[in-house]
TrEMBL record:
<protein>
    <submittedName>
        <fullName>Uncharacterized protein</fullName>
    </submittedName>
</protein>
Length: 60
């Protein structure tokens, strides 16, 4: 639920508003979550790179 709120909040906020907030100084989602919940500090996110084999060829 927190992540859903986070995504909706930033989609509805303009970039100029975003720059004024403390969120702009954060480097990752882990940094943002760590402020609210110290138990989230040690969470590591592993995002595997996308394979180009999954994409269909595109003709222009």
């Amino acid at each position: 639920m927190l992540i859903d709120y986070f995504l909706v909040y930033f989609v509805l906020m303009g970039y100029s508003e975003y720059e004024k907030r403390d969120y702009a100084s954060k480097k990752s989602i882990a940094d943002l979550l760590a402020d609210d919940n110290p138990a989230c500090v040690d969470i590591e996110f592993e995002i595997p790179p996308r394979s180009k084999a999954q994409h269909r060829p595109v003709e222009f």
